[in-house]
Amino acid sequence: QVTLRESGPALVKPTQTLTLSCTFTGFSLSTSGMCVSWIRQPPGKAPEWLARIDWDDEKYYSTSLKTRLTISKDTSKNQVVLTMTNMDPVDTATYYCARDYFDRNVFQYYFDSWGQGTLVTVSS
Amino acid sequence: DVQMTQSPSSLSASVGDIVTISCRASQTISNHLNWYQQKPGKAPKLLIYAASNLQSGVPSRFSGSASGTDFTLTISSLQPEDFATYYCQQSYTTWAFGQGTKVEVK
Questions:
Q1: How many CB pairs under 8 A join A and B?
Q2: pLDDT category, B106, cuts 50, 70, 90?
Q3: Is A106 strand, coil or helix?
Q4: A80 contacts A7 by C-beta, under 8 angstroms
Q5: Between chains, do A49 and B96 touch, taking CB under 8 Å as contact?
Q6: With bands split at pLDDT 50, 70 and 90, how would you rate the model's confidence at B1?
Q7: pLDDT digits over A45-100, tens only?
Q8: Strand A11-12 to strand A69-74: parallel, antiparallel, or no bridges (unpaired)?
Q9: Number of H helices, E strands in chain A
Q10: Is the separation of the CB atoms in A37 and A51 below 8 Å?
Q11: Cβ-based contacts of A114 with chain B (< 8 Å)
């Protein structure tokens, strides 16, 4: 059974750097084809994909946010970390990590397992 | 970047109704389109992947189809537990979600 859990601060001040951790079980990021993404969802709005890290350490970022994001992994700890610099009140959202599964039957990716999300509020 | 336009943004329906939700890509994405259901306070749940493949455990009343850059999610007979918000998501390049369709009680 695949599980993911996000952790990090509930409140950050404007201009600060946010660091979130995603700890997962049920799969390994050293296995070919495995990927983990971060997605956020502002209150009442649609989800927004942020970043992805692959089993081979390839990294992908949202075009609009790439200058502020860094994603990394610790395979031995089954953990993925996202940092976002220069936080602003508009970054207030629930942040999710999700397994970005590559299905070899259809040669496509999809988010098949999600964490419960962590609400991050940006306010002074 | 590929933009996804979902319609309608909301709809009212009754139990037993057929519900269709549309999603249009700004450029070709082949069939790299997934559908999710989200209930308040919960993470999205995968329903359909690769445009028309039903995720394991999802009821067969959910189905997906594609025609060019137009994609459709259909619920053949709406059930009480289906009142939720639905999102499309393209996985062709730089993943992106549609703006969502809220299915409400009529």
A1: 58
A2: very high
A3: coil
A4: no
A5: yes
A6: confident
A7: 999 999 999 999 999 999 999 999 999 999 999 999 999 999 999 999 999 999 99
A8: unpaired
A9: 0, 11
A10: yes
A11: 43-45
User: Cα–Cα distance between B92 and B32 in angstroms, integer?
Assistant: 5
Check if the beta carbon of residue B33 is closer than 8 Å to that of residue B23.
yes
The A residues from 63 to 122 touching B (CB cutoff 8 Å) are 63, 96, 98, 103, 106, 108-112, 114-117
Q: Residue A62, SS3?
A: coil
Does residue B73 carry a pLDDT above 90?
A: yes
Residues 6 or more apart from B74 whose CB is under 8 A from it? Answer: B18, B19, B20, B21, B62, B63, B64, B65
Contact criterion met (CB < 8 Å) for A110 and B49: yes
| Residue B34 sits at the chain A interface (C-beta within 8 Å) | yes
Residues A98 and A36 sit within 8 Å (Cβ to Cβ): yes
What is the predicted pLDDT for the residue at A84?
98
